[in-house]
Amino acid sequence: MGKYSLTVNKKTHTFEVASDTPLLWVLRDTLKLYGTKYGCGIGQCGACTVHIDGLPYRSCCIPIESIKDQSIVTIEGLSENGTHTVQLAWQVVDVPQCGYCQSGQIMTAAALLDRIPQPTEADINRAMKGNICRCGTYVRIKEAIKLAAKNISS
Amino acid sequence: MTSRRNFIKVSGLAGGGLAISLAVPKYARTMAFKPGDREITMNNFLTIDTGGNITAILTKHEMGQGTGTSVPTILADELGADWSKVKIKRSDYNPVYSWREMGTTGGSGSIERIWNAIRNAGATAREMMKQAAAQQWGVDTMVVKAENSFVINLITKERLEFGQLAEAASKLPVPEKVVLKKPKDYVYIGTSVKNRITPEVVAGKANYGIDMDIPSMVYAAIKRCPVFNGKVVTYDDTEARGLKGVLDIFPLTLSEDVKKTLHPKIGYVDEGVVVVADSTWTAFKATKLLKITWDQGANGSRSTTSLENEMKAAKDAVSFKFEMGDFEQVLNDRNNEILEVEYNNPHHPHALMEPINATAHFTGEACEVWVGTQDAAQTNAEVAKLLGLPRENVTVHVLNSGGSFGRRYHMDSSIEAAFISRKINKPVKVTWTREDEMMHDHFQHCLRNYLTAVITPDKRVVGVQNKAICTVDYAIWSEKWDHYYAFPNIRGYRAHVPTLVQQGAWRSVGEHSGSLGKECFIDELAHKTGKDPIDYRIELLGNEVDWGDPKDFPNWVINYFLPRKKIIRQRYLDTLEYIRMHNLWKKEMPYGRGKGFAIANFGDTICAQIAEVTMDDSECGFSVDKVTAVVYCGMVVNPHFGRGQIEGAIIWALSAVKYGGITVENGVVQRTNFDNNKVVRMDETPEIEVIFIESDEEPCGLGEPGTPALAPAVLNAIFDASGKRIREIPVRKEIFQSA
Ligand code: FES
Ligand code: FES
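# FE2/S2 (inorganic) cluster complex -> structure
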């Protein structure tokens, strides 16, 4: 058990949890930020992806005690009202089916475009293959990423 | 014109406006042959208030198929509404919506089954809006039309908004007859209206069952007996109790008396030990510290190897199902060549993206449940039975789910949550770990087909026999009604081997299992007889199967079933002709690549697929480069959703071809998470082209029909590419090195 202070979506929260609690469960159970999803708990599915200092991480595999003065962004904080380039592209393409995997997909895609604004097909596959979608929306996810990239360049 | 009878009831809306209630026959369309079905009223199914706000009740579960958007667009279209004014309200479980077609979600039937009822409701409201406006203007309804939530006077061009008319409309008599729109006049149907859940999803605000949160709620996890039907004997929870945040630990065991009242399959719950804690994480962690002694029961000594042996042995103990013609006679003709092959389609997991969960709050007299379920009515029934409460005291709130695919027909998590809430007197959320979800899935059943064909010296297939060995008591091609290919002599057998895991519906159910052997076998026969696989199928479908003498058939078979079979056969033919006409199949493949074809129906929808593969050194020994799907499903209500369902089903089935097939050892499922249960990811996703054959016929389902043709199309393509006949999935690279 320990007392922790965490900056999520620009807001600082203080709380007490077991020191091995993964960031995922702090976000969900403690901070009630339910946009970040649980899918596997072992870093295999990407549903729990968040940004830590701008880079994509699997929040299910990061114990709270290992986070030091870092800034965390979840899907709820990616933009005001879902207006990030990636979120807009997702709406234009109308990507989601059940939608459950999509916060993770969007967070991974946003981090990819931050790093490589004009990704190749291979870049997209490499970045996105860690995110599972059981509804099989991969075709649309790819289309939305390409659209977002196009919107960035213009 | 549709006869109204008493299907629609209209009343005033509290606060002013129009409320439409639907009284529809219990089986709206698909099973209209069943006489004596009750009619059920759905109150305030559609309301229009004086502000022009339109609210449509959604009784279907939104699980990724888009029904929450597509069903209301049908209503809005027929009503002549402005889609942006239409709100969709999820209904809790309510007995008036509980009849099959409204209360459950599955079988790819949401739209198909309520298509008529919903259009009638929309058209009735539209006619009443028109009448109210016509009265106000003192004109005949012939000169007014409804469009975009306005009624327009075609002569004076005056306009009245629905909101201005709703109150007056509610006082009018219900029209005797309404005219439904012609397909060419549709505004929303047939267009890709955007999914209503998308803005919430992309903002991270879409809430699923697993996100349920109520004040003073606690969290539970369960260590379930790893063996199906096993029992808890004793347990030691000392260590688990030492964990800070653990609130309670107790066994989940049901008395035989209670068990007897629950549904044996969908109401089945595993025995286990429950941990209640102040967070999900603590509950998960504590279950790992429990030391439990199980009584594994009979399944504890079974495995996939023993199941395989049991299934192989059952080949000689099959029961005769049907015979059309005289198979024995052609079999015994010594001039004929006999082809005998064996296909195997094993258990597959669902691996739903959102792990199973449920939240319940028992208050002594009543219980509320929050869950993503395909069957809220049955959830209500099972929870009521467990708690010994009258059904009206159990409320089931249906939340969106992160995929269902048949798995959420089972009520296990709701029963668990209700059980725990009663025990601790608090609201509780039960979350399954991914490991729980994998190991305690309700798997697709397992099917082995022993197929025999009799081929004459002049290369005609004169007889086909199927022995289906299955872990459920159904299998396509083992009943005569499943046959569309008109071989002159056909014989079917089936044997049922008891399952060693829990089973349930899995996207396309028996069609996936059975189509593997059937469609690969047809491909084998086409090659044997030197025919093109498409031409050969057209030839086989050219005649109707000889079902026998109609005087032996019950009325429903003659009046409903056989006409439907005719339609399906025609759709098969139309789909195949489409492919031939558009030259979709005639493609030369270079060395190391191959193409394969398969076709299947799910309900009245036909889906044919052409798979293109390349042999390679990957773990499966091949990759799928492209799948072209040609779909005959009548009208497509929302092409974007429709295409998405076919794409999704192809990827779903491809996961089974590459990585499906669980192993079980000592009764324990050997898959635990996405590391040892792989699924197809973006980098393995083929190019997918979906072609809908244009049609004005009533829309048929699309959620499942994309699944069954994929596996046989891929295996047939592998044969084309490598010359190797693979008769089993999943496909592993090693198989190309042997055989
Ligand atoms: S839940 Fe974190 S990767 Fe799956
Ligand atoms: S949209 Fe359902 S899992 Fe991806």
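# post-check
Chain A has five helices and five strands.
The pocket of FE2/S2 (inorganic) cluster (ligand 2) is lined by residues A 96-102, 133-135, 137; B 64, 353, 402-403 (CB under 6 Å).
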